[in-house]
Amino acid sequence: MTKSLLQISQEAQKQLNEIVPGKVTVALEKNPATGQNELVGYYEDRGRINYKREAFPNKLFNIGLTLFVSYFAKRKEYIMASAEKQQQYFDAGVHPQMIKTITLDC
């Protein structure tokens, strides 16, 4: 059975609530450039709102959902960090995906 994008967005929110509780808000929005509905995940990045947008070409919902959720899962330590700590990582040139492998002496 094919899932709707609304169902996919709800599933993404459920998974992200387990990975980064309360840190990512998932929305279903129309991309003004393409006219396609896409999943958008909003999260705080150094005190500002940032987002990740994921399109679902050719109805590849499972692959798109996996890619969308994994983006945040790979950045869990960064997303869960305080804005101040995120800024320290940024200033040190540490990519958000690499935080669990690097310890800053800050």
What do these coordinates show?
The protein is of the alpha+beta class. The protein has helices spanning 5-19, 61-73, 76-80, 83-91, and strands at residues 24-30, 37-45, 48-54. It has one domain (5-101). The protein is built from four helices and three strands. It has a three-stranded antiparallel β-sheet. Strand 1 and strand 2 form a beta hairpin. The termini are far apart. The model has no long low-confidence stretch (mean pLDDT 89).
H/E element order: HEEEHHH
- Percent of sequence in beta strands: 15-25%
Biggest sheet architecture: 3 strands, antiparallel
Query: Distance between termini?
Result: 50 Å
Mean pLDDT across every amino acid position? 89
Helical content, roughly?
25-40%
Number of strands: 3
Helical run tally: 4
- What overall geometry do the principal axes of the alpha carbons give? elongated
Question: Which residue ranges are poorly predicted, with pLDDT under 50 across at least 5 consecutive positions?
Answer: none
Strands side by side in the biggest sheet: 1-2-3
> Total domains, how many?
1
Could you say which structural class the secondary elements and strand pairing correspond to? alpha+beta
User: Please, what is the oligomeric state?
Assistant: single chain
Please tell me how large the radius of gyration is: 15 Å
